[in-house]
Design a protein that fits this description.
The structure is a single chain. This protein has 400 residues and is an alpha+beta fold. The protein has helices at 12-25, 76-85, 98-101, 109-114, 122-125, 128-131, 160-164, 198-210, 223-229, 244-257, 269-280, 299-310, 337-346, 359-364, 373-386; strands at residues 6-7, 29-32, 48-51, 58-62, 67-71, 88-89, 132-139, 144-148, 172-180, 182-183, 187-194, 217-221, 235-242, 264-267, 291-297, 315-320, 325-330, 350-356. Helix 8 (198-210) packs antiparallel against helix 12 (299-310). The relative contact order is 0.13.
Length: 400
């Protein structure tokens, strides 16, 4: 990024004024929260950075309503801490990308909404988008806009709240977000099925998810990945959360379901939390020089995709969301974007994002899954409506 200045507005009015001035002069702005994900997406070449660093604080929170409104620059850790003091949490379990990207700083709640940041609990709790009730933002004209509210309800017209989630700062600068929150469980535990190959592991996860044991996380770690985190052979992890008596009872039923397995390991609360934070934050591929892809697809096809890719490239992989999310690690150098996307299409389609690579690679390779032509045209019209001068995060999602 080439940016000569950093703008740090103190409130939404200053954000609107700064973006309005940039629109008038044609200055391009890179939007930044805590800076922990600056190397995700395509490189942004801007004239200045506009930061949410001074837009901090919880603006409204009544635990009995299970809704929290927060200024966009507030750290995720501050939000999580306040929720924890009231026995609540963000159900969608946002990823902390710092270990994977080798970045510093603190993740912000605005960035969680901007990239639709969601972790292993997505398979039962939905994505960040599904918990996002309302947003305040400034568009590329310098206009402050509010959409949504503090209650779940039917809406008419354009749902800007959902549109902003996953827009990566290309449609507007978020100043405040409102999320639905849920009670935190009393405890958790994880059952590990050891030694399964990837096909049988996919079947086991599907079997567990179809049972009445209420799985809140399902992941498979092939042997190389499992050995780096917990040692031993491959591990298929099934998480249970809730009241202690309920978790104990459901764990018994889950063990009975897989009673024919040669090796079953059980992780208690602390070990379970550590394991799932490592899975969530892509710890198996942290500290390496490899290229990392994030692939979303049908769980039943995930292991077949990985097998096909391994026939043609040196790839490590593991599976989250019951296999609906696949993390791929390739030797540094060739991103293999054509190979990955062509094989993905053969296995039911999905979305492949180049999550970690040098900037030189991210300039040339399509970082985000290319859209069909009609959707691409619609996306460009939406961008033009929100940011007619093309000044917000130019080139972040597609070549400007």
């Amino acid at each position: 990024m080439s940016a000569s200045a950093t703008l740090t507005p103190a409130d939404e009015a200053e954000v609107a004024a700064m973006i309005g001035d940039a629109a008038a002069s044609g200055s391009r702005l890179a939007i930044r929260g805590g800076g922990t994900k600056a190397t995700m997406g395509r490189p942004v070449f801007a004239d200045a950075v506009i930061s949410s660093a001074n837009l901090t604080g919880i603006t409204a929170y009544n635990p009995s309503e299970m809704v929290i409104s927060v200024r966009a620059g507030t750290t995720v850790s501050e939000v999580a801490g306040e929720l924890a003091r009231n026995g609540q949490r963000l159900a969608f379990e946002p990823v902390d990308h710092r270990a994977l990207l080798g970045s510093e700083g603190e993740p912000t709640i605005g960035a969680v909404a901007a990239i639709n940041n969601s972790g292993p609990r997505r398979l039962v709790a939905g994505a960040a988008r599904d918990s996002l009730l309302g947003v305040r933002f400034v568009n590329g004209r310098g206009e402050a806009i509010k959409n949504g509210g503090r209650v779940m309800k039917n809406v008419t017209g354009l749902d800007l709240t959902k549109l902003m989630a996953g827009s990566w700062g290309t449609l507007g600068f978020l100043t405040e977000v409102t999320f639905k929150v849920l009670p935190a469980p009393e405890t958790e535990a994880t059952l590990l099925l050891r030694g399964l190959d990837e096909g049988p592991a996919a079947n086991a996860m599907a079997h567990a998810m179809a049972s009445s044991t209420e799985i809140s996380g399902a992941a498979h770690l092939p042997e190389l990945v499992a050995s780096s985190l917990i040692g031993g052979s491959s591990a298929t992890a099934l998480r249970l959360e809730g009241f202690a008596d309920s978790v104990r009872n459901r764990m018994g039923r889950l063990k009975a379901l897989f009673g024919n397995m040669p090796t079953l390991d059980e992780f208690g609360e602390e070990a379970s939390k550590t394991l799932w934070s490592d899975i969530r934050d892509v710890r198996p591929f942290a500290g390496k020089k490899s290229i990392v892809w994030r692939v979303s697809m049908a769980p039943s096809e995930a292991h077949a995709l990985v097998m096909a890719l391994r026939m043609r490239a040196a790839i490590d992989a593991y599976y989250d969301w019951q296999g609906g999310l696949v993390w791929l690690s390739l030797e540094d150098g060739d991103p293999q974007d054509d190979l990955i996307r062509s094989e993905l299409e053969k296995h039911g389609g999905g979305h492949a994002m180049l999550l970690r690579a040098d900037s030189e690679i991210r300039v040339l390779a399509p970082v985000f899954q290319p859209l069909p032509k009609p959707l691409e045209a619609l996306s460009r019209r939406v961008k033009a409506a929100f940011d007619p001068h093309g000044i917000l995060n130019p080139g972040k999602m597609a070549a400007a």
